[in-house]
Amino acid sequence: MKTAILSLLLCLCVSQSFAQGWKLVWHDEFDGSGPLNTEVWKAEHGFVRNEEYQWYQEQNAYRQDGILVLEGRLDSIPNPRYQAGSRSWQRNRPYARYSSASVNTRGTYSFLYGRMEVRARIPAVCGAWPAIWTLGDRMPWPSNGEIDIMEYYQIDGKPHILANAAWGNDRPHSAVWNSKRIPFSHFLEKDPFWAQKFHIWTMDWDAEAIRIYLDGELLNDISLVGTINGSIGNHVNPFHQSQYILLDLAIGGINGGEPQPDAFPMRYEIDYVRVYQKK
């Protein structure tokens, strides 16, 4: 019965987009239960970015009754790269106190322009840093271009939902940002039970602009006229090249805030990821 209902809902959603001139070209509905499809999704490992607290490992990403779960856990994982006295945040921690998951389609699927739609329920708690994003599959960051369809984290001690794009300038590892930061209270005022529900994030991307929506509300409208890399990125526009998909649940770090023990296990749940392109 559940499979039949899901199939009907998918047909209805696809029909609506079809009526608007879109064709479904790629999707993952995360049907069934068990490990994630490793032919599509590649897992990150270890301490990766942003001085985050978690150790990424593939076993924290799994399918459960048609939902992809990225689970943050209290943990104690020895760091094989530990070096006492190191100035590197990835080496000076003897243990990871948390584990989580980050998966992406690098090398398996990328797309140029279109509509990307993700239905998800995020852990709206301090310490959680869930994200839906894409990265260009050519050039180093940020000259490859980054699109943050969704980020949730603390700013000045208050939770926000963000919708961003970033590209390169003339300095290595330094980005130019177009960022919209919406206080989480904006969504709670409309629905006090917002955090308990699934929501739909949408990115519409063409040669002129990137538009990011949450449940149909426009969060950021990014003109591509000025998104030009600096000299390191050869003065090209990174948003005229294909991008791959990333889903992750970070914990703590530069933006995540300090997690509380009673927030675990954290569950970031993704119902589906769909990509459409114009017919």
Describe the structure.
By secondary structure, the chain is mostly beta strands. The chain has one domain: Jelly Rolls. It contains 3 helices and 19 strands. Strands 1, 2, 4, 5, 6, 7, 10, 15, 16, 17 and 19 form an 11-stranded mixed β-sheet that branches. Strands 3, 8, 9, 11, 12, 13, 14 and 18 form an 8-stranded antiparallel β-sheet that branches. A hairpin with a 3-residue loop joins strand 15 and strand 16 (209-214). The protein is globular. The model has no long low-confidence stretch (mean pLDDT 94).
How would you summarize this macromolecular structure in one to three sentences?
By secondary structure, the protein is mainly beta.
Which key phrases capture this entry?
279 residues, mainly beta, eight-stranded antiparallel sheet, globular
- Roughly how many Å apart are the termini? 32 Å
**DSSP strand content:** over 45%
Order of helices and strands: HEEEEEEEEEEEEEEHEEEEHE
Uncertain runs: none
**Major pleated sheet:** 11 strands, mixed
CATH architecture: Sandwich
What is the approximate shape?
globular
Radius of gyration: 19 Å
How many beta-strand segments? 19
- As for the CATH topology, it is Jelly Rolls
> What is the CATH class?
Mainly Beta
